[in-house]
Amino acid sequence: MPSLAHALEPLTAAAVPSFDEVYATNVAFVWRVLRTLGVPDAQLEDAVQDVFVVVHRRLPEWEGRAAITTWLFAIARRVASSHRRRAAGARTEELRPDDEPAGSADTFAAMSRAQAAATVMNILLTLDDDKRIVFALVELEQLSVPDVARMLDINLNTAYSRLRLARAAFESAVRAKGGAR
Fold it and tell me: Domain boundary at 34, 60, 89, which?
């Protein structure tokens, strides 16, 4: 039987990972989240850097009460908002299928993937922010709805509702583009 002293020990917070570990493990996640949050492609690299500047500065303060991705998402959300405000006056360009990196062995397959990604992103950008964020985190990032609700600090039923509405809007947009028969 554990001793009373053991039971009364303070809960220790998760060990703070190194900046290099956080960056290497999560840079792709942050990039995708920023893109989903509407940061223009031309500003993505700067926005990712802005997120990790904040992470570098604030990492020693991270208490481990939530997943590191939840903390990164909160930072990315603020950075994305700032970048969208700066770009509000600029003309937004529609995503192009030629955004795929060059040098692919199978050009046709690469173009098909790029077209599909551009179509998905353009459809996502037609959704309002609340629905787009829930949809992207659940469908693209494969997070559970309860995790997304906690991450966004919303009611679980609200998260499910937003996901249902986003899925319906997404399916409707795909049908309108002629992608589903």
Answer: 89
Q: Is 2 domain-assigned?
A: no
Is residue 3 in some structural domain? Answer: no
Q: What is the CATH number of the domain that holds 23?
A: 1.10.1740.10
DSSP one-letter code for 66: S
Cα gap 76→46, rounded to integer Å: 12
Q: How many domains are contained in the chain?
A: 2
More confident residue, 76 or 98: 76
Rounded CA separation 92/6 (Å): 58
CA distance 25 to 32: 13
Cα separation of 29 and 32, whole Å? 5
pTM of the entire structure?
0.64
- What single string gives the DSSP state of each residue in 86-115? HHTTSPPPPP-GGGSPS--S-HHHHHHHHH
pLDDT tens-place string over residues 28-73: 999 998 988 888 888 899 999 999 999 999 999 888 887 888 889 8
Query: Domain residues for 71?
Result: 14-89
